[in-house]
């Protein structure tokens, strides 16, 4: 006979064996994130390169155009240098340092963070040879995706594409202005000459963006298939102005935000996403901080409307707004199938910094369902990061090299092909697909720190190289995460920190681990007078590893050493995760 649980079974949450949970090592994840940026480098690699399986590449970039465009980052798993996501990556790396540089220094990672920014800005400076000229792409996504080659071997087109007054790109120029302005603050204390150079370029680029308006992908058509500017350029104009105000304290940019807030959408758009294309939530968060710190002046009425939209974004992430962000059953923000993780990390970053802004101002977040404390906002960000690092229904870490269960077949040309230092034999364009892309084995080179696209709307994930929607990493996935990791590594509660970013520390500081959490042990007891066989359990909201049962489809069955449960006997199993106890129920069984 088969049936559902009635009076025959009791599920008991006992405390027979206490299970301790020590929490995640955010410092380790932070350190590994910076290694990913070293793996993404193009150009001549420096003497202190730590990712040794990579080599020099793209050494003729820009040569056909008569300009030096060597350097920069490959955006994801391909060998193209796309200017818009690269600039956004630099902006977010810089913002992470500006907010949490002290915490990075305490971990011994501030110098690596600054190196990651400078590798990007050195290239962006090259890409801006004249005030109204900016190169926005090197390589062609179409020809590049036809081939599967190491960067060191690539034979694909390295054509360079630019914007200028006759071919404008306000979104690209505005984002690059933001990147250089933000980075100028990072380097102000350590390299003032370099910081001034960056700020001068940022001023020029913003003027270019504002004076000659247009979408960059209408001028650089080859980018449309890969990084199309769906949101247009209005958000980047506001974004660039906000960062230039932070970098220069020039009232022109503050007034620009006040004067153009309505016309360019800063006070109108209430967003549920933030990323390389749509910047409104980021602008609104920055402007809200200007307002709370008393810098708004006569722009205060307009800035209050920016802040309202910023808080709508925060409330939607928490599920306490009028139009809430979709989440997976396991609690992860879900926006789209292809590289959803970019939206998770960017939202987590905004929630983290806004929680600190609120705490510094002595305020709370007002949502439609009531007031929310800064600590609750930070807890939301922590929940997203913990999911990324393994507290999820699959107990999978979506950061390569962190934990024991992480993606092994990453959609990434360089990591999936044997290093040329191990085997220098040339890998041909199509030969790479035949030999390496289709290979059903772990990558020969571990892409440590890479944050892949992540699971689908139902927490499902397939670790397969051809599953590019889920297994391809990107530089802009990690950039916001770095700030949150640094913040969480320093502590999980909101404490205002007025101190400026210090100089890099040579050695990490050891911080105590979080207090262990004791979880109850589930017990299944057979209260019938018969032996139970073919038992199936359903377990929901399980976000960590489990021992004592065998996974069978969407259910759990007896472990390998047990095939029945006699009358009066009990079955115990254990699991570890940071959330509330999982929901356990009996799905079916057979009495014999």
UniProtKB/TrEMBL annotation:
Entry GO terms, CC: extracellular region
List residues traversing the bilayer: none
Main EC class the enzyme belongs to: hydrolase
| Location of the Carbohydrate binding domain | 508-580
Task: Please classify the protein's predominant subcellular localization into one broad category.
Answer: secreted
How far does the signal peptide extend, from start to end residue?
1-22
Output the Gene Ontology terms for molecular function: carbohydrate binding; cellulase activity
Catalytic reactions of this protein: Endohydrolysis of (1->4)-beta-D-glucosidic linkages in cellulose, lichenin and cereal beta-D-glucans
- A GO biological process held by the record: cellulose catabolic process
* InterPro entries (alphabetical): 6-hairpin_glycosidase_sf, 6hp_glycosidase-like_sf, CBM_49, Glyco_hydro_9, Glyco_hydro_9_Asp/Glu_AS, Glyco_hydro_9_His_AS
Keywords from UniProt, A to Z, are: Carbohydrate metabolism, Cellulose degradation, Glycoprotein, Glycosidase, Hydrolase, Polysaccharide degradation, Secreted, Signal
Ranges for the region named Disordered are 493-515
Q: Where is the composition biased (Pro residues)?
A: 497-515
Tell me which EC number(s) this protein carries: 3.2.1.4
Residue positions of the active site: 411, 463, 472
Highest taxon listed in the record's lineage: Eukaryota
Q: Where in the cell is it found?
A: Secreted
Q: Which family does it belong to?
A: Belongs to the glycosyl hydrolase 9 (cellulase E) family.
Tell me which PANTHER family the record gives.
ENDO-1,4-BETA-GLUCANASE (PTHR22298)
Q: What is this protein called?
A: Endoglucanase
Q: Which organism is it from?
A: Anisodus tanguticus
């Amino acid at each position: 006979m088969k049936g559902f649980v009635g009076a025959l079974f009791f599920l008991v949450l006992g405390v027979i064996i206490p299970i301790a949970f020590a929490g995640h090592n955010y410092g380790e994840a932070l350190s590994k994130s910076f290694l990913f940026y070293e793996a993404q480098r193009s150009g001549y690699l420096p003497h202190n390169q730590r990712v040794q399986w990579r080599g020099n590449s793209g050494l003729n970039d820009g040569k056909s155009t008569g300009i030096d465009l060597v350097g920069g980052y490959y955006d994801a798993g391909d060998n193209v240098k796309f200017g818009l996501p690269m600039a956004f990556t630099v902006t977010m790396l810089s913002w992470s340092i500006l907010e949490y540089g002290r915490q990075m220094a305490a971990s011994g990672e501030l110098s690596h963070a600054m190196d990651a920014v400078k590798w990007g800005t050195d290239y962006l400076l090259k890409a801006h040879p004249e005030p109204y000229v900016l190169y926005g792409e090197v390589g062609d996504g179409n020809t590049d995706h036809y081939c599967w080659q190491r960067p060191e071997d690539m034979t694909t087109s390295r054509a360079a594409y630019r914007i200028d007054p006759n071919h404008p790109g306000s979104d690209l120029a505005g984002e690059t202005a933001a990147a250089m302005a933000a980075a100028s603050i990072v380097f102000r204390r350590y390299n003032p000459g370099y910081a001034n150079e960056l700020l001068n370029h940022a001023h020029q680029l913003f003027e270019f963006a504002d004076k000659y308006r247009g979408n960059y992908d209408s001028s650089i058509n080859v980018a449309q298939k890969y990084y199309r500017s769906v949101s247009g350029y209005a958000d980047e104009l506001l974004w660039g102005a906000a960062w230039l105000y932070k970098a220069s304290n020039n009232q022109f940019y503050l007034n620009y935000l006040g004067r153009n807030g309505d016309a360019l959408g800063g006070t109108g758009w209430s967003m549920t996403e933030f990323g390389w294309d749509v910047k409104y939530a980021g602008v609104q968060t920055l402007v809200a901080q200007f307002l709370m710190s008393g810098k708004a002046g006569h722009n205060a009425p307009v800035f209050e409307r920016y802040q309202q939209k910023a808080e709508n974004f925060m409330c939607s992430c928490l599920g306490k707004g009028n139009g809430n962000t979709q989440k997976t059953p396991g609690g992860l923000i879900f926006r789209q199938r292809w590289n959803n993780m970019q939206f998770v990390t960017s939202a987590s970053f905004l929630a983290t910094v806004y929680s600190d802004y609120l705490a510094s101002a002595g305020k709370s977040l007002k949502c439609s369902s009531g007031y929310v404390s800064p600590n609750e906002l930070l807890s939301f960000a922590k929940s997203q990061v913990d999911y990324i690092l393994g507290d999820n229904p699959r107990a999978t870490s979506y950061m390569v090299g962190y934990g024991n269960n992480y993606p092994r077949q990453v959609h990434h040309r360089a990591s999936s092909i044997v290093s040329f230092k191990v085997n220098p034999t040339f890998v041909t364009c199509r030969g790479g697909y035949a030999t390496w892309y289709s290979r059903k084995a772990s990558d020969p080179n571990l892409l440590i720190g890479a944050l892949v696209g992540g699971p689908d709307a139902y927490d499902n994930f397939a670790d397969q190289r051809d599953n590019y929607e889920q297994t391809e990493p990107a530089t802009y996935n990690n950039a916001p995460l770095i700030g949150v990791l640094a913040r969480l590594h320093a502590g999980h509660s909101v404490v205002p920190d007025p101190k400026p970013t210090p100089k890099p520390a040579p050695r990490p500081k050891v911080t105590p681990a979080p207090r262990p959490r004791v979880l109850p042990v589930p017990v299944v007891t057979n209260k019938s007078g018969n032996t139970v066989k073919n038992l199936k359990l359903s377990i929901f909201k399980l976000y960590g590893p489990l021992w004592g049962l065998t996974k069978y489809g969407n259910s759990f069955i007896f472990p390998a050493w047990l095939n029945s449960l006699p009358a009066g006997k009990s079955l115990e199993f254990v699991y570890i995760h940071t959330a509330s106890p999982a929901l356990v129920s009996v799905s079916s069984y057979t009495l014999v």
